[in-house]
Amino acid sequence: MKYVDEFRNPQKAKALLREIEKLIARIDICRHRPLSLMEVCGGHTHTIFKFGVETMLPDAVELVHGPGCPVCVLPMGRVDDCVALAETPGVIFTTFGDAMRVPGSKKSLLQAKAGGADVRMVYSPLDALKLARLYPEKEIVFFGLGFETTMPSTALTILQAEREGIRNFSLFCNHITIIPTIKAILDSPELQIDGFLGPGHVSMVIGTRPYRFIAEHYKRPLVIAGFEPLDVLQSVWMLLKQIAEGRCEIENQYNRVVPEDANREALAAVNRVYELREFFEWRGLGSIDHSGVRLRAAYARYDAERKFSVPAIRIADPKSCQCGEVLKGVIKPWECKVFGKACTPEKPLGALMVSSEGACAAYYQFGAIPRQKQGTNAA
Amino acid sequence: MTALPNTMHFAAPVRRRGTISVPTVTLAHGGGGSAMRNLIDDVFVSVFDNPALAPLEDQARFSLAELSRLGDRLAFTTDSYVVDPLFFPGGDIGKLAVCGTINDLAVGGAIPLYLTCSAIIEEGLEVDTLRALAKSMALAAADAGVSIVTGDTKVVHKGTCDKLFLNTAGIGIIREGVNLGADRCRPGDAVLVNGLLGDHGAAILNARGDMALSTAIESDCAALHELIAELLAAAPATRFIRDATRGGLATVLNEAARASGAGIEIWETATPMREEVKAFCEILGLDPLYLANEGKIVCVVPKDEQAAALQSLRGHPLGRGAAIVGHVTGESPGRVVMNTAFGGRRIVDMLVGDQLPRIC
């Protein structure tokens, strides 16, 4: 596959791993403990497990799988709201695929669909808008979800609906913002992260500048990383190089996609349509100030929360869940009390077991393979 | 091809075959009266014609003595087919219903002989569509040397089924000495497939059209009993064969690992897959290891027969792309581990449900 295989070249991976080993030999911390590097984005977690990147890294580097899976961090109460919307007579509820299985307090969207609700999987909010044109007698609700990566596309869909005068389309907005979330993790007193792999596609929208405070104030290096396995390895190498050289900067490994400046047009659409919520509830992390957005009053008629009555009942995470500690890197997924017992991908208790991008589900599914096995690959 | 044993012959009643003149199936065709009789005659009996079906009794009858000459055990299976769309590149629901059930018999080492055909039809289906599908079933059965010997039709209200559901049950005979089972896999055994994986799953997803992608991927739908018969002759100690249908290679390997308590290790670079299928999955965020196949088997054979098995598979037109994809190990019992092309290792687990595309 052109433009893909180049970024999955096993020889280049080996060369990078040799360079990583050399850097580790120069880093003092590595003599006492492994370095903890957090990948913020669920897309990176997916790559790391799909290609077995973690099993290739030396023991001196540990990856902590962060909060960047928008499906995982969605609180149960919001899923209940989705189900209530989907079960409203006359509504076609549209969603990205992996949100279908997320459990609410009573049921998931998949179960609501089985019960007769009209729930449809789409690949883009524009597909939902297409349904609105196709079924003028129905109300089409799109489940808006994700960080700054998906925010512009839903904003532009709202603007398109407005231009066309489409009235039977609305958005159930659960968009979240990355910076307050990273800040919440950095402010945690138990924090044990030596550096970050920064989100690639979020940065394509917001640029590289908003991360500066992480290096300047919190003294942690961050490398914005692409999503192919070589991108991840190279970004790890760049982080180690900074640490070895005593630098602490924001670097951009994914410069084939991410510019230094923000994407002005995308951000203009986002700012026109959305405003910050005072706070947003996260599964696993609790309430984080200014970490979510909602539609501005000018677009109220496209806001499913205002158009329909949603229960909006807050449901606390189960007490036995240790998702927050896993997210902050304090414990490993398998060290959680309920991992693989009360909490499995079939019956997830905690946020991180929900989507395949969640750290716990990824460990459960792709498995933690002992690293010493990496030498036995010869066929 | 195995000759069918003679079925007991009945003097078929001489009567004129009914025909249908209306363009669509209606509830009247399910009412048990002459309209139903006409539908069965016109659409099914006319193309399935064979001595066991001809008397149109409520059951087909076979001579036990004839059957027992072929082997010492009867294999009996059933499968329902609900694929949407009814016609897709490389096949249709009719061909699928015949090949799928033949394969379910064949992977147990059975010689497939007889199939049933049960059709649940949504009112409003075009009669011509039904005729084309019945013809496709008849053709696939004739190609495979099996007979469709009894059947049933039901017509249901609009909206209570999706155009057409088919069920085929099948019986076959297992030769003496053939013993296949997932629990028989042992460390050291080789794991083989008979060709490119994922074509059917990708073709169906693509044929539904909602992905708005254009590819030329065709379903691999095919009856594999002859390929399997040749394999069993070349590698008689074969431990286990299964068709990698829903859930794909990954699911079959997990079933084998769990049933045998052994581990299975595969190499991504050894897994045959079309570039188009890989790219299709890449765009949609799917894992091709879990894509359905309808003409692919996974077989586990002892190490000393792996070369013979591979040669046998490659010698058959439906096994040209056969490959050894991995082996059974004594490590990580019950689990499937893949060495990725990138150089890492990962566990390939069972899916909880369907694959769902990722958000970003």
Explain what you see:
By secondary structure, chain A is α/β, with parallel strands linked by helices. Chain A has one domain (1-318): Rossmann fold, CATH 3.40.50.11740. Helix content of chain A is 37%, strand content 17%. Chain A has helices at residues 10-26, 29-32, 42-50, 53-56, 76-86, 109-114, 125-134, 151-164, 178-186, 200-206, 212-216, 229-244, 264-273, 304-307, 323-327, 359-366; strands at 35-41, 61-68, 91-95, 118-121, 139-146, 169-175, 195-198, 222-224, 250-252, 274-276, 279-282, 286-289, 293-295. Chain A has a 5-stranded parallel β-sheet with strand order 2-1-7-8-9. In chain A, helix 3 (42-50) packs parallel to helix 16 (359-366) and helix 8 packs across helix 13. Chain A is globular. The two termini of chain A are 23 Å apart. Residues 370-379 of chain A have low confidence and may be disordered. Chain B has 360 residues and is an alpha+beta fold. Chain B folds into 2 domains: 27-174, 60s Ribosomal Protein L30, Chain: A (2-Layer Sandwich); 182-347, Phosphoribosyl-aminoimidazole Synthetase, Chain A, domain 2 (Alpha-Beta Complex), CATH 3.90.650.10. Chain B is built from 9 helices and 13 strands. Chain B has a 7-stranded mixed β-sheet with strand order 8-10-7-11-9-12-13. In chain B, helix 4 (127-144) links the parallel strand 4 (110-122) and strand 5 (147-156). The longest helix of chain B is centred in the middle third of the chain and has 18 residues, at 127-144. Chain B is globular and about 65 Å long. The chains are: A alpha/beta (379), B alpha+beta (360). Chains A and B meet through helix 1, helix 3, helix 4 and helix 16 of A and helix 8, strand 12 and strand 13 of B.
